[in-house]
Input
Amino acid sequence: MFIHFDADRASDSQIGFPGEIMARKLGLLLLLCTALYIWPATSVLGAILVTGFLGGAVATHVRLGNPLFSHVLFGVYVGVLMWGGLFLREERLRVLLPVLKPISAG
Output
């Protein structure tokens, strides 16, 4: 179903994941969370779940002592882009977190 390359196996062992089955489970979990993010009715829930997933990736890279800007913060970059896109497309989120105050006429 999914392709697993030798480089993936090497990085999985470096990270400490127990092999191909764990990688497939994590991939399916991320796919489910992303599908929730894409579906408009569940987009906020999906964004929260993907943010948790990315937080786990950040924590893993911190634990391994990987470079800050290229590895550790990559999940933060993706999360900021994801929440920015959701903020632009979701009216309920803009009402909850107003960035600009409306200019009152008068």
Summary: Residues 22-90 form one domain. The two ends are 62 Å apart (CA to CA). Residues 44 and 92 are 10 Å apart (CA to CA). The helical segments are 6-15, 20-38, 43-64, 68-72, 74-89, 91-96.
